[in-house]
């Protein structure tokens, strides 16, 4: 740990001094993304938002599930909610019935 970037703060919860590192983002786009994540997740600091985002990304990477597998899982869930497919559906008869013909 580079001591010049660390600072000491008092933690009221543990009644102790805690060394923490500050988060300094130099890239404007990364800063905007951190602010957006902070807003959407409801975190109090950008550091917390970045930590959660990185933890989620690592968890996703560890799962090792491909995009194809994730999309297939979503398709399966939607298909289960929709019920069986009506193969013998007659679109013309349906439209005629709707238009009372």
Task: Provide keyphrases for this structure.
single chain, 101 residues, mainly alpha, two-stranded antiparallel ribbon, 4 helices, 55% helix, elongated, disordered N terminus
Strand runs, count: 2
Secondary-structure element string: EEHHHH
Derived structural class: mainly alpha
Number of helical regions: 4
Percent of sequence in beta strands: 5-15%
- CA(first)-CA(last) distance: 79 Å
Mean pLDDT: 80
Outline the biggest β-sheet: 2 strands, antiparallel
**Range of helix content:** 55-70%
In the sheet with the most strands, the strands line up as: 1-2
Large-scale geometry: elongated
Instruction: Supply Rg.
Output: 26 Å
Given as residue ranges, the uncertain stretches (5+ residues, pLDDT < 50) are 1-8
Descriptive notes:
The chain has 101 residues and is mainly α. It has helices at 28-41, 46-63, 67-82, 91-98, and strands at residues 6-11, 16-21. The protein has a two-stranded antiparallel sheet. It is elongated. The chain is 55% helix and 12% strand. A hairpin with a 4-residue loop joins strand 1 and strand 2.
Layout of helices and strands:
Blueprint: E1 6-11, E2 16-21, H1 28-41, H2 46-63, H3 67-82, H4 91-98
Antiparallel strand pairs: 1-2
Helix pairs in contact: 1-2
């Amino acid at each position: 740990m580079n001591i010049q970037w660390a600072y000491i703060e008092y933690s009221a919860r543990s009644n102790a001094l805690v060394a923490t590192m500050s988060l300094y983002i130099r890239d404007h786009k990364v800063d905007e993304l951190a602010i957006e994540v902070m807003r959407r997740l409801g975190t109090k600091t950008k550091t917390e938002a970045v930590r959660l985002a990185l933890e989620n990304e690592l968890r996703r990477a560890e799962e090792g599930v491909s995009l194809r597998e994730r999309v297939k899982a979503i398709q399966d869930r939607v298909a289960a909610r929709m019920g069986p497919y009506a193969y013998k559906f007659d679109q013309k008869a349906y439209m005629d019935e709707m238009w009372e013909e």
